[in-house]
Design brief:
With about 400 residues, the chain is α+β, with helices and mostly antiparallel strands. The protein contains eleven helices and 24 strands. A hairpin with an 8-residue loop joins strand 6 and strand 7. Helix 4 packs across helix 5, helix 5 crosses helix 8 and helix 6 runs antiparallel to helix 7. Bound molecules: adenosine monophosphate and glycine. Glycine (GLY) binds next to loops.
Length: about 400
């Protein structure tokens, strides 16, 4: 097993090869030379650049959607179109390619409704969305997103109705025809305690997500995930791989905030320890078009993943800080690596989000306690984490 480029965590399981995730030629060449039977393409960037297409044309089994299908994440305008055509509930919106008109619209919505959401129509690692309160913030949000994207081809902004409710992330594994839905998760997107600060890729997650009962999950599985997969297949763009729906559960029911063409991070770190079957069976079924025969099985337990990030993330941060992970952590604690590497024989930080410290327990509060116990024992100077992952969700029956 190989990982490209990998990190210090997966290096314990696979041989890491230093090929950048965006180097499509390099990755395709390596897969051919190493005669890889199967390739799992994880992140959105190589997917949107067509790595899955290239690998499939070379005859490898591939887990992950084609570039055309990956547009469900890389173009929010395309995703909105699929939702409209499939009748999937989502926030009302308008697309603009002129920053001046986008600004006018954002200010108008915020003046009328109090809040508005401004989204860049491009991949932005979770940082292309601003929820603005009031007309002043709305105008500033358009200015800053437009400035950040200045000079990009095909610049577009989406101005969207601000939805209220609680969020959940639901991931399905598809083969282009059917879907197996995983246990719902909830991530904490804001950088700081109390859900304040900028949006990040995610500072922690819990699974199962509270507030999603079996009926609602079935509804989401059918009316959101399967509806999208069927619609895309019908339009000649079948989606095979992990399809992630970010949802707002509103008083009018679940509405889609976004689709991703991959596993959610850090939701997946919380979901995986609960999966009762081998993930590889699902991945193979996706590659070979037999997801319809599969069923996911989940342990009746709760899991919490707390992200340890480099101080400064999602803004500027340093790397190269030494990390010490104790070797005698409890069995139900798993440390998923993100931005780590080995330098001079020592484990050091190498990215914004560094570790996903995950623990399983019989309740969210127990899994949360175990995750934070592990964090207490991990040495990471220059690291920070939120202290309230799994808290303050504010739902009736919260077990905290
Ligand atoms: P997205 O990348 O589209 O999921 O947006 C990132 C985060 O912004 C979401 O997880 C929500 O917290 C927030 N968000 C996005 N769209 C909306 C919306 N229409 N209403 C309220 N919050 C939103
Ligand atoms: N945590 C949300 C994402 O992976 O985009």
């Amino acid at each position: 097993m190989y990982a490209a480029p990998g990190n210090a965590g997966i290096a314990q399981l696979a041989r890491c090869v230093p090929i950048d995730a965006a180097d499509i030629d390099g990755l395709a060449r390596f897969a051919r030379e190493a005669s890889c039977d199967m390739v799992i393409v994880g992140p959105e960037l190589p997917l949107s650049l067509g790595l899955a297409d290239r690998l499939a044309s070379q005859g490898h089994a591939v887990f992950g959607p084609t570039a055309a299908a990956a547009r469900i994440e890389s173009s929010k305008a395309y995703a909105k179109g699929v939702m409209e055509r499939a009748g999937i509930p989502t926030a009302s919106y308008e697309v603009f390619d002129d920053p001046f008109r986008a600004r006018q619209a954002a200010v108008a919505v915020a003046s009328r409704a109090g809040s508005v959401v401004v989204k860049l129509d491009a991949l932005a690692a979770g940082k292309g969305v601003v929820v603005a309160h009031g007309p002043e913030e709305a105008g500033a949000a358009v200015d800053s997103l437009a400035k950040g994207a200045a000079g990009n081809d095909g610049f577009r902004l989406i101005i969207e109705e601000c939805l209220e409710g609680y969020e959940a992330s639901i991931i399905g594994i598809s083969d282009g025809k059917d879907v197996v839905t995983l246990v719902p998760a909830k991530d904490h997107k804001r950088a700081f305690d109390g859900d304040i600060g900028p949006n990040t890729g995610g500072m922690g997650a819990i699974a199962p997500a509270p507030g999603i009962d079996r009926d609602m999950l079935e509804w989401i599985s059918d009316r959101v995930l399967l509806a999208a997969v069927r619609q895309m297949a019908q339009e000649g763009v079948p989606f095979a791989g992990a399809l992630f729906a970010g949802l707002m559960i509103t008083d009018d029911g679940p509405k889609v905030l976004e689709f991703n063409c991959r596993f959610g991070d850090p939701e997946t770190q919380a979901i995986m320890p609960l999966l009762g079957i081998d993930l590889l069976d699902l991945v193979e079924a996706s590659c070979h078009g037999c997801i319809g025969q599969m069923k996911a099985d989940f342990r009746k337990a709760n899991s919490t993943c707390v992200v340890m990030a480099s101080k400064g993330y999602p803004g500027h941060y340093g790397t190269g800080a030494p990390i010490r992970i104790p070797t005698d952590l409890p069995e139900e604690t798993v440390i998923f690596h993100a931005g780590t590497r080995i330098a001079d024989g020592r484990l050091v930080s190498a990215g914004g989000r560094v570790l996903g410290v995950t623990a399983v327990g019989s309740s969210t509060s127990e899994s949360r306690r175990c995750a934070y116990d592990a964090i207490e024992r991990i040495g990471f100077e220059g690291g920070y984490c939120r202290s309230d992952i799994g808290l303050g969700i504010g739902l009736p029956g919260e077990d905290l």
